[in-house]
Fold this protein.
Amino acid sequence: MKEQLLKLQAEALAAIAQAGDVAAIQEMRVRYLGKKSDLSVALGGLGKLPTVEERKEMGALGNEIKQAVSAALDAREASLGRAELEARLAGEIVDVTLPGRPAPRGHLHVLNQVRGRIEEIFISMGYAVAESRQVETDWYNFEALNIPKGHPARDAQDSFFISDEVVLRTHTSNTQIRYMLEVAQGRTPVKIICPGRTFRRDFEDATHAAQFHQVEGLVIDKSIHMGHLKGALTEMARGLFGPNVGIRLRPSYFPFTEPSAEMDITCIFCGGTGCRTCKGSGWIEIGGSGMVNPVVLAHGGYDPEQVSGWAFGYGIERVAMLMYGIENIQNFTTGDMRFLRQF
Amino acid sequence: MQVSYNWLKDYVDVDLSPAELAKALTNRGVVVEVFANANPGMAGVVVGKVVEIERHPDSDHLWVCQVDVGGKVLQILTGAQNVRQGDLVPAAIPGSKLPDGRTMEAKKLRGLESHGMLCSPIEIGMGDDADGILILPPDPSLEPGMDAAEVLGLNDWIFELDLTANYASHCQAMVGVAQEVAAILGESVDWPATYTEDEPNTNANRMIDIRIAEPDLCSRYTARIVRGVKVGESPAWLQARVRAAGMRPINNIVDISNFVMMELGQPLHTFDYARIRGRQIIVRRAAPGEPFKTLDGQDRVLDPDILVIADGMGPVAMAGVMGGLESEVTDGTTEILIESAHFNNINNRRTSLRMNLPSEAARRFTKGVDPSGCVRAADRAAQLIALIAGGKVVQGVVDVYPRPAVPAVIVCRTAKVNAHLGLQLSAERISEHLDGLGMIVLAPADLARDLATGMPEPEAEEGDDLSGRPVWTAMHQVSPVPKDAAAYAGWAETAWEALEAAGDQLESLGDVEALVVVAPTRRLDIAKEIDLVEEVARSEGYDKIPLELPVLESRRGGRTSLASIVLAARQALAGLGLDEIMTYSLTNPKVYDKLRLPTESPDRRVLTLGNPLYEEQSTLRTLLLPAVLDNLKYNANRQNRDLGVFEIGNVYRPVAGEVLPAEPRALAIALTGNQAGAGWNSPEQPADFFALKGIVEQLLDQLDVQGWSVGRSSHGSFHPGRQAELIVAGRSVGVFGEVHPDVVTAWDLPGRVYAAEFDFDGLVAAARPQRAYHIVPKFPAITRDVALMIGETVPAVMVAAAIKSVGELIEEVTLFDRYQGEHVKPGWVSLAYRITYRAADRTLTDADVEAVHGKVRAALQALGAELRS
């Protein structure tokens, strides 16, 4: 029996060494080690051996042979497998410069992206975002903002009207009044920004649109002063245009604020040294601002003797145009995919 | 407002360069938009006197002039036909330079030497008149050889002011701008003297009877009369001033009116006194249909909205807008009536706009004019007329002043100023700034003295001792006070009321540090404490205001939940591959026909603008879809036919019984052409109904909208067989599907379009603010497939519902195959579903599943299905 076992071992090891691929090894594993293999059959006859010693000896030898064959199979399988993997990898080369499979990708409108950035800056400073209506009564759009009928400021803001008493809002300031009266109702602090769509009866060109978007800010509390306006505007400008941007206020006039100021930011094209865009001044005008006129506070239900406030407003289109160097305000509404898909 | 740098120097000593001055004014809020050298580039051109003129012997149009150019006589040829012997003209002598860059030299014209050229206005950069030589006025102060640029007032700088509404009134006068300059420099303003030599024998009040019928529209009307006047050309200095103000010299009377208007800000009108019928003037509303011929020769029809100046017979002027032809000053006029009045700005603006008659005068009345200045301006004009046009000023000023303007008396608390500006200015510093602007600053104790002393007797006259009344005295000093006794009495009454009101206010404020400020009436923008805060701010400089952040009670900021949902929806749709567009809220009402909407459709009920710019933008949209289709068309025209777009925006719907419309948000989606971009290794995926529906489903899932379903619909804008309405919480929120071919044709689109229009607010009404969590299953699932055939009219959703209705253990039902054709009966469809079974508390056995699956099969058979597996 011993000879038979050793012969089986030699035969198996020789065959394994000759095996050509992983599939042959797997077949040999069954043939040499499986339940019906010669080895298993031979070992199954152990019980017929006459002595316990012989049975022990042959059993041990059988196990040795099983292990040797199994080890040889594993080693041969590993080496063949590695070679096969390497051969496969060598044949699997892609041209990495070919374009990828197109995955669907849409784009948020650039104006909404910019509006979102502005909102995030103010939200991070604890401002609430307030919105209101676009078709508005004369009172909310003009009267409450200290622009009575016949006021010359109405000329500068030529409005579309639906009737004598109803206009398309010319600024988002109506939201300030509605927020004061409908939401805050006399409570302080008021700390909001009001983004939204506005309308002016302007013939359109590269910088004028009959429909555009504004964001305004309003803060009301005890002891609010113009320095706070400067502080908030500086934070806003730096959030939008980077840490090196400063702001400048220049005396101006708006009926709803007093004192009023034009707000300029450091020219983002030259960094303030003077260039063609800023006409050499180092500053770019961005919007209007000022201390809320006591008349407006009173219309909003606040006592100007007790509280004060500041407000600002500017065009979102204007900011987007500055930010990206967009040359024509019409691009925002035209909806040309060659424009919209850039952002 | 156009301001001459040299002219300013008549009123204040300016020692700043034009550039420095422009910057300093702008920093104060008096914005200098442009400043430019008045001389367009002329040098060495002199005043020449034509001493002899004769025709060129070899030309039928040239003239040969002997011109005295100061110390010598040069022969200069000209082709102009308006030169006469004795005329003074600008002579560009050899070596002189012209604005077009030419340097003059002597040359021969038709054989005769010409030593330079006589200049027309266009050649020296003064307007576009090329017809004739510029003839200088026969002014005795002009001598041959003088620098023509100097004589024409071109050695000057011109500032173009862009005035804000609050400064527009006082800065539309040279003296007002001078006050701002004086404040910069710490100087004071030299007001022009208005000494008049009166003709003693009569009085204007006996020569004209003036009545104001509409005191609300005309708060003051003053008049002066000058007799023995000779209308003619103005002297060179006056012409130069008029030109510097951007106007053309006309004649001495018109030029003086314009000069005084520029200097003092008060528009004047001059009448030929002899042609005022009935020796009376009535300021009244025009009668309906009243005819009137304005001095531009136009026949106009008036109405009661228009304020007129009428004489005994009819209108002689539209107040503050334009005079009449009948009473116009002509070359033959010898008696001038100067009108210096104050008209209501709103009425004036309306008339000027309606009649399309913008003028310097109308512009000034629109922005506001100081009523106190009327007499001063009339005096100044009378003085200049007498000086320049000859004649005698008739004694007396007619002054009808029903609504007297009095200086504002304002209590200004230093703490309030500082609290608004974030500064710590002393009362002295604040006083200094206000004083620099021509106000008088006093102390509360001064006001107390006034009040203790009481109002002077009405018969007190100018020059009387006003001591003991410092505020009252200041009110007399900051602005001119009426001289006419009746007018003064009215003024004094109103003024004392203002003074007393300030006293009451001071008392109510209690013990605070305050100033009592008397502001001149020419500062129409100053009436309240806050107005003074602004004056202090701009005088101190906005750059002095510190940069701080307020410390406020900490409150949560952020967006409203609806705004957050809008943002989430936008991001979701962009994430699904759609491009966001933002279209016009204004739209063409014709789009509803193109959309095949029935006439009774509520979408046709639109808000219409009263003053649209174009018909295409004359109504407010009720739907987004038309503009979205416009967008597809725009891009298709630019070779971009593979599109997926969306918009979330407001639409506007009138609400019965309400003044204001509803402004709900809408969502529109449109797909056309290939969706995922086809590539070398990916097939084209043309848009279809299910691509659109997939997007809608994904959106609803991302927003976690609860309880939605779709049903068949019959909207005229969509393909009858390929459209569905979306139902959320039992309410239809809109339709989606293939756009009707007629609509596609109406928009001239190149291919099929799939679109949706939803009421966004309705769609998100059932959005769950927070997702519900389900425990992750612990036990494995078992799947079983079932294939069946069923009539094609049975909606797939019913088959799935029949399966789900079995309920127990069924976790998910997925349709994985749908087939019609060979091996399927006509009119039938083959469907294959994969059903996932799972129990929450144990591993299912095959036997468990078989029991339920048997019920599923039975349910399908009950629905009329034939099972295939």
Notes: Chain A has a mean pLDDT of 92. Chain A touches chain B through 87 residues (CB under 8 Å). Strands of chain A lie at 128-129, 135-137, 161-163, 166-168, 190-199, 211-221, 247-254, 257-266, 283-292, 308-315. DSSP finds 13 helices and ten strands in chain A.
